[in-house]
Amino acid sequence: MNLIFLIFTLKNSLTKIILNLFPRPLLIKISIWIRPIIYLYYKGNKFLDPIDGKSYRKFLPYGYGKQRQNALSPGTLSLERHRQMWLYLQNETNFFQDNLKVLHIAPEQEFLRKFRKMKNLDYISADLYSPIVDVKADILDLPFPDNSFDVVFCNHVLEHINDDRKAMSELYRVLKPGGWGILQVPMKNSLEKTYEDFTITDPKERQKHFGQYDHVRWYGLDYFQRLQSVGFHTNALYYSQRFSEEEIKKFGLIKNEILPLVSK
Hints:
The protein is of the alpha/beta class. Helix content is 34%, strand content 23%. It is built from 9 helices and 13 strands. Strands 7-6-5-8-9-13-12 form a 7-stranded mixed β-sheet, sandwiched between helices. The longest helix is centred in the N-terminal third of the chain and has 19 residues.
């Protein structure tokens, strides 16, 4: 327990070093066995993770640059955007009831675990590097037929891809007519136009300009125009704003975070 306490109460600067030093697949593997111990340490009643229904005395800080306090749930390792997405699926859709074929690109660990168990879903996870997916696949050339899926999830992937419109077009191609999806990206609501510069390749410079060492852009509000350019209908939903201030704090949400919804 002392080792776990040390790891997860590190000063912000050391936490940043760990996030930037170790590749994401390795962090995923480590988190699988260490997560249950973290949960026991952080049990409480101040915060509630809607994904697992468990309460905590605090959430963990998280961020590659400036750390956000009470951002990472100790039990599911979910961030604010994941909890907002879960609440939307739970409250506004029939995702947990309808028979759906679902494609999930670079799946979040807890979503993967839960969605795989849902008998109403024909669920396929895909990624080029993740060690926990069903299909190794390049988002620029997905190995699925046209009009294959009822639902597509692709969260915080497109900001890593130089040719993001090609990736968007592939997601659109495999989505069925009438299908829908959630395609989250890091976005600055203050930016009208996406900021990208492909001459910036140094990891430190990318973190300085784009917020993370392996990102190639900050999306602005024109993100939805990019999605529309490949055929998607879009909805920039500020879903967290439907909750009270008390609920936003309890669930660990960001009030002005956009949930990008798409449909075909």
